[in-house]
Amino acid sequence: MTDQKEIDTEIINLVVARLKSIPADAHLSVGGDEAKTMNSQDLIAEVRQQSEIGKQIVESQLFFLRSLGDLPIESNA
After folding, report:
1. Domain annotation covers residue 1
2. Shortest CA distance to 11 belongs to which of 72, 67, 54?
3. How many domains does the chain have?
4. Which structural domain range is residue 31 located in?
5. Are 27 and 37 in contact (CB under 8 A)?
6. Within-domain flag for 76
């Protein structure tokens, strides 16, 4: 994912919609040795700017969404 020059607009919109579901008062620590504390609006800005942090956020969100396909389907029987 991070090798692409630009991320598809539909994917950005999907990730932004997921980030908007994070409570406004929640903060996440992003980065390694020089970690920054960011709220959902900061994360959305990074995704829209397609910064390195934004691309990593997109990649992690897509990984999570793809993993949902591995869940067993609940039977009504």
Report:
1. no
2. 54
3. 1
4. 9-64
5. yes
6. no
Give DSSP secondary structure letters for 43-72.
Answer: HHHHHHHT-HHHHHHHHHHHHHHHHGGGSP
Q: Note down pLDDT in tens along the chain; length 77 residues.
A: 444 567 899 999 999 999 999 998 999 888 777 788 999 999 999 999 999 999 999 999 999 988 888 777 776 65
Residue 44 in any domain: the answer is yes
Tokens of residue 1, six digits:
């994912």
Answer whether 8's CB lies under 8 Å from 50's CB: no
Whether residue 12 contacts residue 46, with contact meaning beta carbons closer than 8 Å, is answered with no
How many angstroms separate the CA atoms of 76 and 33, rounded?
A: 48
For the chain, helix, strand, coil in percent to 5 are 55, 10, 35
Nearest to 46 by CA among 23, 30, 24, 66: 30
